[in-house]
Design brief:
The complex is a heterodimer of chains A (about 100) and B (about 375). Chain A has one helix at about 10-35; strands at about 45-50, 55-60, 70-75, 80-90. Chain A is α+β, with helices and mostly antiparallel strands and about 100 residues long. Chain A has two domains: about 1-40; about 45-90, 60s Ribosomal Protein L30, Chain: A, CATH 3.30.1330. The longest helix of chain A is centred in the N-terminal third of the chain and has 28 residues, at about 10-35. Chain B has two domains: about 30-190, no CATH class; about 195-360, Peptidyl-tRNA hydrolase (Rossmann fold). Chain B has a seven-stranded mixed beta sheet. In chain B, strand 1 and strand 2 form a beta hairpin. The radius of gyration of chain B is 27 Å and the shape is elongated. Classes of the chains: A alpha+beta (about 100), B alpha/beta (about 375).
Chain lengths: ~100, ~375
C-alpha cells in the first residue's frame, strides 16, 4: 500500500486518527438523530365514574365537557348518582380496564 | 504499485501537520469554528422553541375561533406581550408583600377583564380556561424572546462562551417547556393537570355539597366528618383558576373568630430527581407555591389564632405538574385524602372546626 511506506508508523498513526475522527463523527450524528426523534408515547384520557351510594365504579374514555364532580347518570346497581371521580391519562399501550372496580 | 516515494510522503505529512499546527495555535480559527458550531446548535434549538410558541398560539386561536371569536390569531398575538408585572421596590421592605399582592391582583384583574371583553358570551369556566391558556402562551413567548436576546447578543459580539452556554442549556429548556404546549390542550378541554391534585382532594372531602364563593374565584364547602365541622376551601372549578386560598383562609378564620383547631393545606410539590411520582408526604407549614401574598395570609392567620398548620404534599416533577394528570397522581389523591382524614381523626376532637385547603389549579375539578 502507498508503495514503500508500509513500515512507516507515523503514517499508520495518521490514518488511524483520521478513521477514529470519522467514526466518532458518524456515531455522534447517529446519537443526535436518535435523541431528536424520541417521541412520547401516545396517551389516552380515562374517566372513572363512581356511584355516590354504593361505590360501584366504571372506567370509560374521556369526552369533552366531562369534569370531576359531574353527574353522568344513575348507578346500574342501586340507582344512585354516578359522578366523575377521576380523570387521568395513561399510555395507550396499557389495556383499558372496564367494568366494576374495587 | 508505487505511487510516490517515501520522501515525498514524509514531506506531505510534515506540511499538513505544520499547517494544522499553525492554524490551531497561531490563529483564532478553532474559536471561529466553535462559535459556528455552538451558534448553529443554539439556532436550531431556538427554532424549535419558536415553533412551540407558534403551536401554542395556533391551538388557542383554534379554540377561540370555535367559540366564535373573529381574528383569533391577531388577538392571541396581542395578548402575548401585553401583561407583565414590575417587581415592587425591595430596598425598602416595609409592606412589600402587600404591594406585591396588589400588583399581582391588579394585573390578573386587568387580564381577566380583557378576556371577558373578548368573550362576552362565554361562560366563566370556559373564559378561565382561555385566560390560563393565554397565560401559558405568554410565558412561553417570554422565555423564547429572552433566550433569543442572548443568542443575538452572542452572535453580535462573537461571545462564544454565551453561545456555548445557550447551546448547552437550550435542550433542557426545550424538554421542560414542551409540557406547557400540551397543557394548553388540557386547559382547552378542561382536563385536570398534575397541579389539580389539591382541588381533587378537596373535592373528595366536599363531594357535591354547596360551594359558597368566599373570595374571588375561591369557594368553601362545609361538611361534617366524624363530629368535626370541616371547611373545605378550593379554587372555583371546573374552570382553570387557582383562586385566592390565602385570603379565603384569612376570611374564614376571621368569620369563625379564631375558633379553628387545625388548618390543613394539600398541594402538589416538586419532587427531586430519583423520587417517585405520587409520593404523599406530610409536614408542617402552609403548602402553597405562590410568590408570597397568599401563603403569608395563611401563616399570619394561623399565628394570630395559634392554629397548627399541617401540610400534605403530593410529589411530582414540574412537567407532570403542568401536563394532564397521570394515573399515579390520580391514585395519590386517594392516599392524600386518607392522610387528611387521619390527621382530622387523630389531631382534632369532635366538635372542632377544621379548615382543609386544596391548593392548586381547579381545571376539570368541581
Amino acid at each position: 500500500m502507498f508503495g514503500g511506506v508500509d513500515s512507516d508508523p507515523f503514517l499508520y498513526l495518521a490514518i488511524a486518527l483520521l478513521v477514529a475522527f470519522v467514526v466518532q463523527g458518524v456515531l455522534s450524528y447517529l446519537s443526535q438523530r436518535k435523541s431528536g426523534s424520541e417521541q412520547e408515547r401516545p396517551m389516552q384520557i380515562l374517566v372513572v365514574v363512581t356511584c355516590t351510594n354504593c361505590g360501584h365504579s366504571e372506567t370509560t374514555n374521556f369526552t369533552e365537557g366531562m369534569f370531576v364532580g359531574r353527574v353522568v347518570g344513575s348507578c346500574p346497581k342501586c340507582g344512585g348518582k354516578l359522578i366523575v371521580s377521576k380523570i387521568f391519562t395513561q399510555p395507550i399501550q396499557q389495556s383499558l380496564k372496564t367494568g366494576p372496580q374495587r | 504499485m508505487v505511487l510516490l516515494d517515501n520522501g515525498v510522503w514524509d514531506q506531505i505529512i510534515s506540511l499538513i501537520f505544520l499547517v494544522m499546527f499553525t492554524l490551531y495555535f497561531m490563529t483564532d480559527l478553532p474559536q471561529r469554528v466553535q462559535i459556528y458550531r455552538y451558534s448553529r446548535l443554539a439556532a436550531s434549538k431556538l427554532a424549535m422553541l419558536e415553533s412551540m410558541v407558534r403551536e401554542s398560539v395556533s391551538k388557542i386561536a383554534g379554540y377561540l375561533s370555535k367559540l366564535g371569536v373573529e381574528n383569533p390569531q391577531e388577538i392571541v398575538s396581542r395578548f402575548l406581550d401585553a401583561y407583565f408585572v414590575i417587581q415592587p421596590v425591595d430596598i425598602e421592605p416595609t409592606d412589600i408583600i402587600k404591594r406585591l399582592g396588589h400588583l399581582i391582583e391588579s394585573n390578573e384583574r386587568k387580564f381577566k377583564n380583557d378576556v371577558a371583553k373578548l368573550l362576552p358570551n362565554v361562560g366563566t369556566h370556559a373564559r378561565n380556561n382561555v385566560a390560563a391558556s393565554l397565560a401559558i402562551a405568554s410565558a412561553l413567548n417570554t422565555v423564547y424572546k429572552t433566550l433569543r436576546h442572548y443568542y443575538i447578543v452572542g452572535r453580535k459580539y462573537d461571545n462564544w462562551l454565551l453561545l456555548m452556554q445557550l447551546s448547552m442549556i437550550l435542550p433542557q429548556y426545550l424538554r421542560e417547556l414542551s409540557p406547557y404546549v400540551k397543557a394548553i390542550d388540557a386547559f382547552v378541554k378542561g382536563i385536570p393537570i398534575g397541579d389539580s391534585v389539591g382541588p381533587l382532594v378537596a373535592f373528595k372531602l366536599a363531594g357535591l355539597s354547596d360551594r359558597i364563593e368566599i373570595v374571588e374565584d375561591t369557594v368553601v364547602s362545609r361538611v361534617e366528618i366524624e363530629g368535626r365541622t370541616v371547611y373545605v376551601v378550593k379554587a372555583k372549578g371546573p374552570g382553570a383558576t387557582v383562586g385566592r386560598p390565602g385570603k379565603a383562609v384569612a376570611k374564614l378564620v376571621e368569620d369563625l373568630r379564631c375558633n379553628v383547631a387545625r388548618i390543613i393545606t394539600v398541594d402538589a410539590a416538586l419532587k427531586l430527581e430519583g423520587e417517585a411520582t405520587g409520593e404523599v408526604v406530610e409536614g408542617t407549614g402552609a403548602a402553597i407555591g405562590d410568590p408570597g401574598p397568599e401563603k403569608i395570609e395563611i401563616e399570619r392567620a394561623a399565628v394570630r389564632c395559634g392554629v397548627p398548620l399541617d401540610a400534605v404534599i403530593v410529589k411530582m416533577s414540574s412537567e407532570e405538574a403542568i401536563k394532564p394528570m397521570c394515573r399515579e397522581i390520580a391514585e395519590a389523591a386517594d392516599r392524600a385524602y386518607n392522610l387528611v382524614l387521619e390527621i382530622i381523626r387523630n389531631r382534632t376532637k369532635p366538635g372542632d372546626n377544621v379548615i382543609v385547603v386544596g391548593v392548586g389549579n381547579s381545571v376539570g375539578v368541581y
